Amino acid sequence: MSQKALDLRRSMQIARRRKVLIGIIVALGILGGSAYAVVKPAMFTSTALIALTPPVSVQPTTTTSGTDPYTATQEVVAGSNEVLLDALPDVRPAMSLMELRLDVQVASPATDIISVSAQGKDAADAEATANAVADSYILYVSSPHSAVGRVQAQMLESATNATRPTPIERTIIFALLGSVAGALIGIIVALAIGRNDRRLRSRDEIANSLGIPVLASVPVAHPSGAAGWVRLFENYNPTAVHAWQLRTALQRLGMTGSGFGLTADDRNGSSSYWDGRASMDEGGRFSLTVLSLASDAGALALGPQLAAFAASQNIPTSLVVGPQQDAAATAILRTACAAPPSEASMRHGLLRVTAHDEGSVGMHPDTALVIVVAAVDGRAPKLPPYPIRTNAMVIGVSAGAATAEQLARAAVAATADGQEITGILVADPEPTDQTTGRIPHLAGSARHRAPGRSRGIVTEIKR
Hints:
Elements: H1 2-17, H2 19-39, E1 44-53, H3 69-78, H4 81-87, H5 97-103, E2 104-110, E3 113-120, H6 123-142, E4 152-157, H7 167-194, H8 203-210, E5 214-218, H9 226-235, H10 240-252, H11 264-267, H12 270-274, E6 286-293, H13 302-312, E7 317-321, H14 331-337, H15 347-350, E8 351-355, E9 369-376, E10 392-398, H16 404-416, E11 421-427
Parallel strand pairs: 5-11, 6-9, 6-10, 7-8, 7-9, 10-11
Antiparallel strand pairs: 1-3, 1-4, 2-3
Helix pairs in contact: 2-7, 4-6, 9-13, 9-14
């Protein structure tokens, strides 16, 4: 029973993730139903009523379904081949026996009453066909050749005033039917695609794939141009929940301490404030690489947002976009790095961004945090030929953007270069994901490891 509940829950999650696909198929179903209603207009329907007088020997009874057996028998007779064949010369337009059978319906609206309904492209045809079948039945059951004996039957009401649904009513009905059919087809297609999708979506799945905890999961911006990246640098302002997660991530990395968030005046000089931390390099700086897949555009924003958040907490921060395995993945971001900050932006004096290709990176003497953005190819990840070594490295990934194999390849490429992956940052977590991505019994935190010497970043300023 629990397995069934789990499958149902997973199916609902898959359908929710594919809601755009389902919505498109539903829209196509509505359009298809509406088009069918327009191309094939409704037929006219007219009904003739026949009154029966059962023999005295026949006692009125009803079955469990509420139908009088005698009347039910006459329904069968009215729809028999003998009756329909005799009616063929009078139906309009001329048609075969099979076509007539499809156009005529026999029912019993009440005991001892039979209704004969016929469809036609116009009202006159529907009325003529219904009356022809009704007359043929009356003649047949009144003749000595009747298979059920003679039956007293007479026309109670001839077929007149043929009606049909209005075009608007028919369009609405078929549009609703199309939407229901589209929803069913869309859900089936979504489940078929989703069950074969190996991309990781929940925080626990992502953490378990590498055995590394998720440090923070936040929604990210998706800038489409250099101006969008500049706005992110200058105006990024996370909600209180996400700000707390980013703050906690920095603490887990060993970046912050009791003086976190103090202003420059309170610190009385950044170098004295940042010295003495176990995870800092000898220049008093902490450096961090945010590694993501080139195909994951959302995760690319994690490094810039973390840098902007740190600057908003009064930490002098430098964002470095280093050499990339896939230069196209960060081309627009590198262009944005060249844009000068406005006087009113938080970048002014606290956040500096730069694009770096090779050699040393000159740092401002007040810089306390260096965040390096790196993107690798998920199919064959390889760190750039001039890697910038940092104190710590985290992998950034969007929910539903990568498989376990892709993350594992990226992790292997990073550790092969001598880097150690400390944690994972998740971009755009799914709203329905209730997991935390926290793996117990971690091997150790960055704050307890000896500092690694940064290569490619100038950590001492010589005058």
